[in-house]
Every structure is written in C-alpha cells, then in structure tokens.
Specification:
1 helix, alpha/beta, about 170 residues
Amino acid sequence: MTQRFSRRSFLHATAASTGIALLAGCSSSSGGGSGGAGDGDGDSSDEEDTPEHEMRDFGGWFDRTGNYDGVHDLTGQDSVTVAVGAAGNGGGYAFAPAAVRVSPGTTVVWEWTGNGGTHNVVNREDGLFESELTVSEGHTFEYTFEDSGEYRYVCVPHETLGMVGVVVVE
C-alpha cells in the first residue's frame, strides 16, 4: 500500500527534525571553547570584552544571529571589508564581521562570497544605503560613513534567519 504525505505532515516532520538538530547543536557547545573567536551560537554570556571585540547587545538586534562575536574595532582605517554570505545562521547567511566600529570618513565595502543565494545590504532604519540583490561572488557595494552613530542593516531575503549587521561610527 502506498503511503501519501500531505504538505502539512511533511512540514511538521521537517520542523520537528530541524528543532531536534538545533537542540542537539546547542547542547554540544559547552566546554572546549575556540579560544576567543566565539562558538557562533550568539550567546555572549561566557565571552569577555577584549579591546578588539566589545560585547554589546544593541537592544536584541543580534538575538537571532549566530556569528555575532562582539564589535570589531577597526577604527583608524580608511576602508573596511565585510563579507556578505559568510558562514553563519545555518549556511551562508551572515555578515562577517557582524558588527564593526569605524572612524568617521571610513568606507565600508561589503563583498559577496557567492554563498547562501541572493543577498543585499539595506539600512533598515532610514534607507540611507541599499545595494542591489545579487548572488555574484566578488560583487561589492560600498558606503562612506561620515556621521557618528549606529547604522543597522540587513539582508532582506535572509533577515529572519539572523542576517543582520551594525556599523558603529565613533
């Protein structure tokens, strides 16, 4: 006898197996840390601030982001590169580093890795900058930050997966 699966039963089974896999991954992350690079689970409770990586919560902005490991201090540089489609959030669905601190006048260059499908970079708060949607490895988009502040941005297709970032200008 042929067994038929409905779309609903397939989705329930997929969700259940994904949940189990996520829980298994969470329980196996204790102990044996990776020496300061973070374990990628987004839990900063066992990480310390360092001069290069200040931990901030940004009001929960990074709650769903698995590769957030603090604010990378890149002040004093004319140009800073952030990878688009970096490993994180279950695939190539992250910006790396997820948060950077730069000086006023710094140009941030987002460079596509070609991983994770089609991505973009969009300032969600006021539309100050927005790239095109693309999957092309090596594609770049840049924006020069002149004014101090926190600039939050997302990849629109993967925002719900945690593909978000911040540029802190100080």
